[in-house]
Amino acid sequence: MEWRGRRQSDNVDDQRGAGGGSFGGRGFRIPIGGGGRGGGIGIGGIVLILIVCAVLGINPLTLLSGGDIAPTDGTPSQQQTTRPAANDEMTAFVRTVLAETEDTWNTVFTANGQQYREPTMVLFSGQARSACGFASSASGPFYCPGDHKVYLDTDFFRELSSRFGASGDFAEAYVIAHEVGHHVQNLIGVLPKFNQMRQSMNETEANRMSVRVELQADCFAGVWGKSTEQRGILEQGDLQEALQAAQQIGDDTLQKRSQGYVVPESFNHGTSAQRVRWFQKGFTSGDMKTCDTFSPNYQQL
């Protein structure tokens, strides 16, 4: 991935070494050992907005108004002054990938008459506080809709390589792009709607909806990946790195690795095959309208 020498985002809050507590609350994360709750739906143009509205009963005017969305959980976070990030290659990489997601989604939102609200990426080591509760490195990278921030302990990338066998800078970029995909879902008002809906769902129903949410975030990551290819950033083998990462963090693969068998009703991010397929779908089309994981026959799409 030809990321060096490109624009770096200023929307990074480096809190490494700041400490914290244990994770609690509802963030939307990359699973690293056995699952978790996920979140969101998507836009992709007026057509997809109308599809999502029909499925979830959302007023289209709400999605098209460009207004702020209320936090899903927790209390609003206090404004923080972004500290200068550490001058290291990992920070430069994260800033560059985040900038690339900003360029992608600013273009998509503008094309649909909306304004993209750029998220903040919080880098931490060990533990950090979020509007969704305390985040720990054990929770994996996650997005908190309550403060519109992505939380990342960069040590996760070493674990992604050593524990899961998914190495490479584009595999790491895929992780970031997936979490930013949840931010896109939050901006259109669907993460709050999903959190509202799951209050009346049993665990199995919520897991099934969560899978659709997570697979759409994978598809959105694929859409972003396509835009990086169009800007001439991708190198040979980059796509395979992302697909390997998606393969290794599927619910079935994680459960087989951790306990030797799978429990499909507990899946909440999707199988390896599903995650690979939906990332590829977004990457092949480069169009958010193809990311309709809420279609009744989404598993055949």
Coarse morphology: globular
What's the rounded overall pLDDT mean? 79
Structural class: alpha/beta
In which order are the strands of the major sheet placed? Answer: 1-3-7-6-2
What are the secondary-structure elements, in order, as H or E?
Answer: EEHHHEEEEEHHHHHHH
Task: Please tally the helical runs, counting DSSP H or I stretches of 4 or more residues.
Answer: 10
Quick one: biggest sheet?
5 strands, mixed
Number of DSSP strand runs: 7
The percent range for helix content is: 40-55%
Low-confidence stretches: 19-25, 34-85
End-to-end Cα distance, whole Å, is 29 Å
What percentage of the residues does DSSP assign to strands (E)?
5-15%
Radius of gyration, in Å, reads 17 Å
What's a concise summary of this model?
This protein has 301 residues and is an alpha/beta fold.
Task: Explain this structure.
The radius of gyration is 17 Å and the shape is globular. α3 packs across α5 and α5 crosses α8. The strands form two sheets. It has a five-stranded mixed beta sheet with strand order 1-3-7-6-2, with helices on one face. A two-stranded antiparallel ribbon has the order 4-5. The protein is 46% helix and 8% strand. About 20% of the residues have low confidence. A hairpin with a 4-residue loop joins β6 and β7. With 301 residues, the protein is an alpha/beta fold.
